[in-house]
Amino acid sequence: MAYAINEYNFWSNPKVREAGKDAALMYLAGNSYCNEFMTDGLIVSTAIPVIANLAFQANPNKAIKALLDNRLWIKVTNGYQVHDYLKYNKSKAEIEDLKKRCSAAGKASAKARVEQDVEQPVEQDVEHRHVDKTLNPISYTNSNTNYKEKESINSSSSIAEKGDDDDLFRAFETIAAVTPEVRKAINQAADSYGAAWVRDAIAEGVVHGAKSFAYVNRILASWKANGKPSNGNKQPGADVERFRELYRKQKQGAK
Questions:
Q1: What is the per-residue pLDDT across 164-184, written as a single tens digit (0 to 9) for each?
Q2: HSE on the CB side for 75, CA within 13 Å?
């Protein structure tokens, strides 16, 4: 599921009020489309029927005209550009960089946990009792072996859990400080959804400008209800690359 950033005062913006509710719905649906396919704010003409359907618009021409008249959308060669999209939303390059960094951090943390687990010494009999092995060598060997196996499993489990927690806490620090309340919320979410989901949801929150763990929790709840999306290639086409070049030239011309 795509998340697009829209401020609360969007609804009181004079341009939005002037454009009307149908245009506002088209604008929001368009932003979601741009975020889902990482188009940097470009809406190609062929995507209009899909966006209109999302915005409950059987005939979107009137809404599009209102968006253009109020400079919420700008007409470009191959479609429309959301005005100031990159001023409030991350670009495709920024999103891909964040995903790569989160993925690399997760792999590094997993590798560190495995190495720590391998190096963890197996504890000996804590009571150090003297046992005469000649009395029942088979019973003694089996008992001691089972004890060591149990201790090793418990030790590995506790290390993995601690590593997951530390990894999630460090990841969330890119959004906000990890207070005792946030630490408790992260632990509860990991118990409910699993550490991997929580890590991915935090990364999604970073991409979309989350300010609190409540945002991450909403992502997790949505994934649980609707299914967690895959990270496949969602690039809509070469039109996006052409727009990026046009946008860069426009910015250079403005300077």
A1: 667 888 888 888 888 999 899
A2: 6
